[in-house]
Amino acid sequence: MTPRNLGDTELKRLHRIWRRRTEGRVALLLDSVQTPYNVGSIVRLAAAFRVEHLHLAGATAPLRAGGTRKTALGADRYVPSTTHPDLSTAIDAVKDDGFQLVGIELADEATPLHEVAFSEDVCLALGHEDRGLSPLTLAASDAVAFIPQLGKVGSLNVASAAAIALYEVRRRAWTS
To answer: What is the arithmetic mean of pLDDT over 60-68?
Structure first.
């Protein structure tokens, strides 16, 4: 039998099955992610992976920016978000909501992403495209993880890193 693309009804059924199999809450904290296209891509990922809340802080591009809206393609309507006045307020909100804060960063003493012990409720922190996570976010993180890379390129685009990290968190829920 040759595989074929799923129709609308089949897609809805497939997504409903996976939603039922998925436990735990996931949130995202964007720490000065400045490029609107990256923010828009992350918003789309957040909608696809059922992120409970998106926290925007620091110099993160606003959801209303043209590039953000163009890349998100309206997915922002599916993801509750808060633009925080400063980073410490965003971190406090994450912690107050009971999330384990996991920084995704190529940092000293970071753990490979696949070895991090995630709690049931995880907030992934993603940082600036060049400078990464701020010292404040790194210090506040319950764990810091990196994505192992095998090639000659030393880092990933922040939206690509978000996709990998979100998938890993959800994959763990599906296999445990």
So the answer is: 94
